Amino acid sequence: MKGKQVLLTGGTGGLGLGVTPAILARGAEVTIPYRDEKSIESLKKNLSATDTSRIRFVRADLSQESTIEQLVNELGKVDILIHLVGGFSIGTVHEMDYTDWQKSLDLNLNTTFLVCKHCLKAMRRHGYGRIVTVGSRGAVQPAAQLAAYSAAKAGVVALTKAIAEETKELNITANTVLPSVIDTPANREAMGSEGAEKWVKPESLAQVICFLASEAAKDVSGAAIPVYGQV
């Protein structure tokens, strides 16, 4: 990824703590949108001062299309989009508020659509692009109380595959990863740490993501890669 311009959404989150160092180690120039200053400080604790200096942090609300459009236009060129933004939610269908359903789709699916849409415009102009999104095991193996989350992530998978079909002759690839439970501080807090040693480590998932974003995977597009750990 040396010299490549990478837009990394969710780079300050739990998964980002594993993905961001892996991208920097491969020589990329990284832009990370953020909403909370505290999340930047958490990330910096895991990086050297040299690595931190190679990141451009941009305050942005990725639920707003105009904000995303402005961000991508300011970057001018996006070689690689790695979209980590998402959130887990639970609830039975018959008890779920429609607003909660909408929130899950907005966070997991609609942000993916908006970021992909505007990055694709830039990638098409330059004739190059790598897109990696994050689905979920729940997208292909839905479970009880995960209807909203699973539906949203299934949408991410379908969207990514559709992009791959639309760009297969343009030197642009689009792939998604399907993790099971990721071993993040937020997941340990929500679910407890029992059995966490079997969960997928952010650093492990980062290796798969970086491969899909690299030249080594130039012939891989439309893939949905299971990364289940031992769960």
DSSP strand count: 7
Would you state the CATH class? Alpha Beta
Helix content: 40-55%
Question: Structural class, judged by helices and strands?
Answer: alpha/beta
User: Which fold name fills CATH's third level, the topology?
Assistant: Rossmann fold
Q: Please, how many helices?
A: 9
Query: Strand portion, in percent?
Result: 15-25%
Span of the ends, CA to CA: 31 Å
| Rg computed from alpha carbons, rounded to a whole number of angstroms | 17 Å
Query: How are the strands ordered across the major sheet?
Result: 3-2-1-4-5-6-7
Parts with pLDDT < 50 across at least 5 consecutive residues: none
**What's the helix-strand series?**
EHEHHEHEHEHHEHHE
Assign an overall shape. Answer: globular
Total number of domains: 1
- Name the CATH homologous superfamily: NAD(P)-binding Rossmann-like Domain
Q: What would you say the CATH architecture is?
A: 3-Layer(aba) Sandwich
Descriptors:
single chain, 231 residues, alpha/beta, Rossmann fold, seven-stranded parallel β-sheet, globular
Topology:
Blueprint (H helix, E strand, L loop, with lengths): L4 E5 L6 H10 L3 E6 L2 H8 L4 H5 L1 E5 L5 H11 L4 E4 L14 H29 L2 E6 L2 H4 L6 H20 L5 E8 L5 H7 L10 H11 L11 E4 L4
Note down, in words, how this protein is organized.
- The chain has 231 residues and is an alpha/beta fold.
- It has one domain (5-227): NAD(P)-binding Rossmann-like Domain (Rossmann fold), CATH 3.40.50.
- 45% of the residues lie in helices and 16% in strands.
- The protein has helices at 16-25, 37-44, 49-53, 65-75, 98-126, 137-140, 147-166, 185-191, 202-212; strands spanning 5-9, 29-34, 55-59, 80-83, 129-134, 172-179, 224-227.
- The chain has a seven-stranded parallel beta sheet with strand order 3-2-1-4-5-6-7, sandwiched between helices.
- Strand 1, helix 1 (16-25) and strand 2 form a beta-alpha-beta unit.
- Helix 1 (16-25) crosses helix 9 (202-212) and helix 5 runs parallel beside helix 7 (147-166).
- It starts with a strand and ends with a strand.
- The relative contact order is 0.15.
- The mean pLDDT is 94.
